[in-house]
């Protein structure tokens, strides 16, 4: 008997589904001196692109279509062309929801740490997001907020940044459930961008210019003035990079800069390149720090 697809719940042959979309993994491998990847949950273990049998081919194609939209309209234009403003329609919110759903569904997500009432909320969220992905409900039924932050030059004193923040910001991938004092949200990260899908409560304060609607424009600069979330993101960066040597990071950032040379003219490259180790970015993100935050994962 074939296994059951986690999304449509029909008995079909399953394909190996990426939790973090494959186009992100490919970019990291091609743009760095090393193709090794790490996760915050197991920072000591180098992994290749993690995937697990989760979806049937039909459901995988639904998610793939939105991945293609995001990669072509935002991911590559932002990283390669330094584009600062992006128009979008319903596909962006559906893309973020589809990745958040996969994170909740993935075997690697540590749900055993939560109490039964929290697990119930997670199951309900997965069910509602699953219906939306399949087209059984519409975005008008979705009352949870979803955010996209473009990471750039951070207006925070250097001593307030984690030691290896540049590596996490530019090249790190991450995914977890963020929980603090009863609040719970899905957090995931691609190179130079962070996503948050709200679960409980359905909205969060202090994210300015980051909320994704049914359609519209999203642009930089943005502002994150929520102290708990600023501290949370920096805490995740320490988890993912705590065993990386300076040599590994130097090689990876150098490889990243070589790729950027292909897409930036020499004059523009010199204008934004202040040192080999300096992060190449055009955006401005203000983050206020505090220590009062907890996170799981």
Characterization of this structure:
- A hairpin with a 2-residue loop joins strand 6 (174-180) and strand 7.
- Mean pLDDT is 78; it is low at 251-285 and 287-297.
- The strands form four sheets. The chain has a four-stranded antiparallel beta sheet with strand order 4-8-7-6, with helices on both faces. The protein has a four-stranded mixed beta sheet with strand order 5-12-11-9.
- With 297 residues, the protein is α+β, with helices and mostly antiparallel strands.
- It has helices at residues 22-31, 57-81, 90-105, 116-134, 165-171, 227-241, 246-263, 266-272; strands at residues 14-18, 51-56, 85-88, 146-150, 153-154, 174-180, 183-190, 193-200, 207-208, 216-219, 222-224, 284-287.
- It is built from eight helices and twelve strands.
- Helices cover 39% and strands 20% of the residues.
- The longest helix has 25 residues, at 57-81.
Key terms for this structure?
297 residues; four-stranded mixed beta sheet
Shape: globular
Which percent bin holds the helix content?
25-40%
Proportion of beta-strand residues: 15-25%
Low-confidence stretches are 251-285, 287-297
Rg over CA atoms: 19 Å
| Termini separation | 34 Å
Main β-sheet, spatial strand arrangement: 4-8-7-6
SS-based class: alpha+beta
What string gives the helices and strands in order? EHEHEHHEEHEEEEEEHHHE
Give the tally of β-strands: 12
Described by strand count, sense and barrel closure, the largest sheet is: 4 strands, antiparallel
**How confident is the prediction overall: mean pLDDT?**
78
Instruction: Enumerate how many helices there are, as a single number.
Output: 8
């Amino acid at each position: 008997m074939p296994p059951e697809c986690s999304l449509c719940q029909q008995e079909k042959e399953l394909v190996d589904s990426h939790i973090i979309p494959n186009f992100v993994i490919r970019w990291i491998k091609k743009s760095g001196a090393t193709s090794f990847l790490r996760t915050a949950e197991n920072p000591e273990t180098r992994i290749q692109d993690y995937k697990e049998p989760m979806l049937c081919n039909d459901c995988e194609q639904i998610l793939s279509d939105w991945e293609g939209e995001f990669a072509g309209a935002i991911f590559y234009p932002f990283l390669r062309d330094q584009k600062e403003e992006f128009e979008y329609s319903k596909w962006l919110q559906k893309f973020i929801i589809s990745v958040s759903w996969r994170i909740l569904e993935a075997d690697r997500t540590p749900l055993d740490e939560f109490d039964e009432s929290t697990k119930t909320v997670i199951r309900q969220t997965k069910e509602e997001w699953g219906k939306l992905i399949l087209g059984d409900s519409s975005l008008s039924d979705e009352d949870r907020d979803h955010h996209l932050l473009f990471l750039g030059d951070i207006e925070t004193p250097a001593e307030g940044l984690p030691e290896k923040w540049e590596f996490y910001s530019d090249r790190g991938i991450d995914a977890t459930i963020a929980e603090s004092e009863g609040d719970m949200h899905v957090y995931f990260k691609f190179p130079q961008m962070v996503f948050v899908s709200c679960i409980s409560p359905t909205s969060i304060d202090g994210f300015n210019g980051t909320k994704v609607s049914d359609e519209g424009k999203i642009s930089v600069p943005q502002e994150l003035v929520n102290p708990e979330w600023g501290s949370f993101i920096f805490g995740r960066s320490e988890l993912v990079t705590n065993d990386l040597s300076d040599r590994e990071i130097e090689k990876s950032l150098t490889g990243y800069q070589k790729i950027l040379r292909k897409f930036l003219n020499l004059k523009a490259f010199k204008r934004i390149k202040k040192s080999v180790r300096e992060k190449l970015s055009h955006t401005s993100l203000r983050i206020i720090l505090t220590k009062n935050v907890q996170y799981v994962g």
